[in-house]
Amino acid sequence: MRKPIKLSKESERQIVIQDLTRLGIYEDKKGEPIHSLSYFSLVHLLAMEKAVGQ
Questions:
Q1: Chain-centroid distance, C-alpha 30
Q2: What is the pLDDT of residues 18-41, one digit of tens each?
Q3: Contact yes or no for 48/23 (Cβ under 8 A)
Q4: Which of 4, 20, 26, 51 is deepest in the core (most CB within 10 A)?
């Protein structure tokens, strides 16, 4: 049986950035570029965008 791959926080952060750019989001509500945001800020932004988009 295979073990799941453990991604680093930076890898997870890059995945969230890719998800946001696919949605056409390049900055947060304050105008900060998403590439300068922390992992938790990115996840929060993605969750908010998905909730509003439904």
A1: 16
A2: 999 999 999 999 999 999 999 999
A3: no
A4: 20
